[in-house]
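Example record for the data management plan.
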Amino acid sequence: MSNQRSGDRGLSRRDFLRGGVAVGLGSAAIGAPADAAQDRSDDSTGESGRARRTKGKTEIVLRINGSDRRVEVEPRTSLLSALRDFASPPLTGTKLVCDGGNCGACTVHVDGRPAAACMLLALDAVGHELRTIEGLGTPEEMSPLQQSFCDHDGMMCGFCTPGMIMSLTAELDRNPKANEEQLRAACAGNLCRCGTYPQVFEAALSVAKGGAR
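Corresponding structural encoding:
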């Protein structure tokens, strides 16, 4: 009687599970060559890096502060990491703080506009004009805004300072007579955990009123 009921049900639960595992393994075996072929196809199509799936390290040329820099990076490398870790010599003025586009410490100029370097891939920066804090001035010959930050004590720990200066410089390049409201809006994405905002705006307004950049 028990055997009759088992026959009525057809496959037992054990037989069903065993069959499912076999089908799954068979599907994986069939799909693997297709996936590999697709990878080879992706690697070999298209001239632009955007259309091609890239593996391993790739040498790219970044236009930084008016000069071409050859940098070897992986596809996942951020522009921030390319500047700090792979450029030779390294450009460490651009700071790594939040690594999530929230603090503004890694702000650079891309074609004259401020951008968070931690949120950009190095490969996507190819063909664009990049400017870092090192491209504004030197300790011996600072830009007017850098000098004004020193004159007005616009920094404490210094980690936010390069990003602040880059954001404000972009605004002053665009609008040399910017008022305080415009300057505040320009660096709204830059955080200073030391609380030097009053001195920062004093420094920026001093340059704006003088018309210097």
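Summary line stored alongside the record: The beta strands are 58-64, 67-73, 107-110, 113-116, 129-131.
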